Amino acid sequence: MNILQMLTQQELAPITLVAGEASKYRQITSITMMDAPDIIPYLRPNMLIITTAYHLKNNHDYFQELIREMAANGCAGIGIKKNRYLHEIPQDILLLAEQLNLPFMELPEHLSLGQINFLMTEKILQSEASLLTHAMDIHRQFTLLILNGHGVPKLIRQLSSLIGREVLLISPYLRPMYSTQQYVPVLATIQNMMNEGFQNPLNCEQTFTFSLIEGKETFAFFPINTHAEKNCFLMVKGNIDQQDITVRLTIEQAINVLSFALMQEQALQQQKRNIRNQHLKDFLENDSGSTVVTKAMSQELSLPYQQAYVCIIGHVITKTPSYSFQPTFTIEQIHKFCEETLQSTRIPIHVFSLNNELIFLYELQDPNSDYILFLRELFSELEGSIYQYFDLHMVFGVSNQTQSFSDIQRAFKEAQSTIVTLRNKQRVVSFYKKKEINELLQMIPQTDLLNYQRMVFKAFASLPDDEQTILFETLNEYLECHCQISETAKRLFVHRNTVIYRIEKCSSLLNKDLKDPEVTLQLRLALRIRNHLIIEQHA
């Protein structure tokens, strides 16, 4: 019950508000009779003090202190019975109460303080009982909507009708849920602020308001806890006064029901994702190559069989240079975020998660189109959003296009190999290309490369360093010139007899025929490894 409602009670008439008109909607939760002058330490928010002013009549300084302390503690107000001990309320006291917006009332003379306390307490209890009944009715009404299968959208419309305000359900990522309205100015404004470095207000756990300068509109955001890492929010247009208990109570009951409904719905959606993820995993690990199995899997995943695809793998990395897997829960949240983001753009991309990585299958509508620039811009923007909401970076490896769904396994391996070689964190999106020898060597541990190179050229180890360098240089040019003595001599600027002498010495040390194709292949690979290790060492 608030001050204004108390003033309208016939049983308490005449009761008059003589100061603090601006705070007449302040709530009263308790009544206290002032029968001693030491009440200040016991002041509480929304407490209404009633008194005969016996302890105030000759204590003006204490009277002023009491008014100030009551205002500071958020008390509901003070009521005084005139003509008992205080025949006239000092004007400076009334002026102080007015300045501090503290309701000041004159109580009826024909009722004792005990009777007034009883009547006020009774009215407060009746008001609380009425609010409780209202809350239970609203909760039952919202619960029945969900149980009868009308769903969350119907509940939102019903809430909007009950409180007479526009209501939207907002995802943790600033997007309307269960709404055809894709562009909401206030959400776009918050997003622009975040792009400029402001903290996301939806990360908070409490209700907050947000106002637009343009249009002078105010919106209240109420968090809905679903036990997920991030809350959904109920966005209500217009400022909601703290004293508007009925509206707040209605919203509170809607939030309670929505919390359970959303948890149930999110659990079902996650179960569907898990099933789809498992189906894709089984398909990628199945090497049977059966057309029947492949077509059955495309139907199971609701993906067209005769459709060109591009496979993209997204790998989450920490803020440190080292690549490390994130907890499954985080991957699920990012999976959900990417799914929501791409659905809002209506781009035909299907999202899966597998082994702590995200897999995107992009339906290529025109196989002859240049999709590289489009995918680079799309996934660069997606990576920026992931960093904004999850404080994590992500890199993407893109395969070549497939002819149909049957080539998805090959595309997946291409995207995987692209991720493995994508070591530069600044390069968000990388496209698959056939590996050069140096790129293949980068995929092999340096210890293995060094051991192989030492094994092949073990016989050279006993020679002085200068002689080793000469023989390696000659052997390298000889093999690059396809074993042509004259061409090798030209490149090294030496006599052809010198080349013959050096090659024969290499053949003798290695105990191999340097014209044997298998031998030349082994030596060329070992020389490539040696050059690669030298470059890596200098780098």
Describe this structure in words.
This protein is α/β, with parallel strands linked by helices. It folds into 4 domains: 3-124, Udp-n-acetylmuramoylalanyl-d-glutamate--2,6- Diaminopimelate Ligase, Chain: A, domain 1; 149-263, Beta-Lactamase, CATH 3.30.450; 303-434, Alpha-Beta Plaits; 440-537, Arc Repressor Mutant, subunit A, CATH 1.10.10. Helix content is 49%, strand content 14%. The chain contains 17 helices and 15 strands. It has helices at residues 3-7, 60-72, 91-99, 113-147, 151-163, 185-195, 245-285, 291-300, 328-345, 372-390, 408-421, 437-442, 446-456, 465-480, 485-492, 496-510, 517-538; strands at 16-19, 30-33, 47-51, 77-80, 104-106, 167-170, 176-177, 208-212, 217-224, 232-237, 309-317, 349-354, 357-363, 393-398, 429-431. The strands form 3 sheets. A 5-stranded mixed β-sheet has the order 1-5-4-3-2. β4 (77-80), α3 (91-99) and β5 (104-106) form a beta-alpha-beta unit. The protein starts with a helix and ends with a helix. The model is unreliable at 320-326 (pLDDT under 50).
Q: What is the topology?
A:
Layout: H1 3-7, E1 16-19, E2 30-33, E3 47-51, H2 60-72, E4 77-80, H3 91-99, E5 104-106, H4 113-147, H5 151-163, E6 167-170, E7 176-177, H6 185-195, E8 208-212, E9 217-224, E10 232-237, H7 245-285, H8 291-300, E11 309-317, H9 328-345, E12 349-354, E13 357-363, H10 372-390, E14 393-398, H11 408-421, E15 429-431, H12 437-442, H13 446-456, H14 465-480, H15 485-492, H16 496-510, H17 517-538
Parallel strand pairs: 2-3, 3-4, 4-5, 14-15
Antiparallel strand pairs: 1-5, 6-7, 6-10, 8-9, 9-10, 11-13, 11-14, 12-13
Helix pairs in contact: 4-5, 4-7, 5-7, 13-17, 14-15, 14-16, 14-17, 15-16
Protein name: PucR family transcriptional regulator
Family: Belongs to the CdaR family.
InterPro entries: CdaR-like_regulators, CdaR_GGDEF, PucR_C-HTH_dom, PucR_C-HTH_sf, PucR_dom
